[in-house]
Amino acid sequence: MTMQAMTFEEIFWGFLIALAAGALIGLERQQDQAIEKKPSLGGVRTFPLIALAGALSSLLAHSLGAWMVLGALMVLGAFLAISYYQDWVRDADPGVTTEIAALITFLLGALALLPNLPLATGQRYLLIVSSAGVVMALLSFKESLHRAVARVSDDDLYATAKFIILALVMLPLLPNRTFGPLDVLNPYRTGLMIVLIAGISFLGYIATRIVGARKGMTVTGILGGLASSTAVTVSMAMRARESPATVSVAAVAILTACTTMFPRVLATVGILDPALVANLVWPFGAMTVVGYAAALFFYLRSRREQEGPEPVSLRNPFELGSALKFGLFFAVVIFAAKAAHVFLGEKGLYASSVVAGSTDVDAILLSVVQFHNEGLASATAVTAITLGAITNTVVKAGIAGWLGGRSLGLRVIAGLGAALGAGALTLFMVG
What we know:
Radius of gyration: 28 Å
Number of strands: 0
Number of domains: 2
Strand content: under 5%
């Protein structure tokens, strides 16, 4: 975009977007000053002016060159340094949050009219407004973020580092080709599945640690279900056996966690094989709706109970040993499923889905997705994935009844049974 190509309307909207971004950030800083009762760099007036300065320097840069933006940035940096020094004199630990926010505000204002930027006008406006919103949110949630970080342990940080190394260093080094019996084993695809499943579980685990299980049974079930619905089932079942008064609330958490597996499967398939989602969404959508409805029913029944379940004790799902075991299990499942399909046809694939689903739904899910990409019929793939999920759900319902007792078992079996029935009926009707 050159100066000659810019219209007055483009310039006007650029200044307006810059002022809006500055106003958003400045409003938050003004409120923070009122809460903290401490003087600061600026607020609802200063930050829009900083954004306006950025936009004006970019406008002048069209004719005078990029040094206008750099010069204005240096002047702003000098003012920020003086402001920080004054805050440091008054307070030994003033922090630099406001100064960094001011710097970002200037850059967002400059972005509104910056020349030779490979972005459409609407794209840069969207980038500016969304960035200002993110900055405003980060500044507003200071205390919440500090409390959340305090809940993250050293083990969680080490697990994060291991996940990054596995995903960004080790995975690209794996050969992307098939070999072995039936020419079905691919090291790169196996590693990719390990990263995908471990990543989803890890995010669910971290979210559970940050939000906390005591925020509510629904949150516990959803986040715990992302990390390990089996862990939620076992933990809540044992809690219900120890304290019969918590049977209903334990059933809510278990039903929510187990139901969360269904949209998780849809999300995984959507990432790996979007074409398959159109057929899979009907049975899994039905199971999701009915499962959450059952959880809501028992939640409404449990509102009078005063005592809730203890926080779910989840192990960090990303341990290198566990990841490697999953990789080995996935390789075995994909070979067994391929062999069953080659020698026994569709019935063999369905049988392997049931067997594998009794222990882990992810392995058979990823195996079937790979076969579908290689030519497996969509109807067969949908049926195999659904059978694996149904088997896995039945096993967890059995665990709830076995560990939690008859009362919990009846509730969980009733809720999950209704969900599975809806899924099976939908699969029959669609298929």
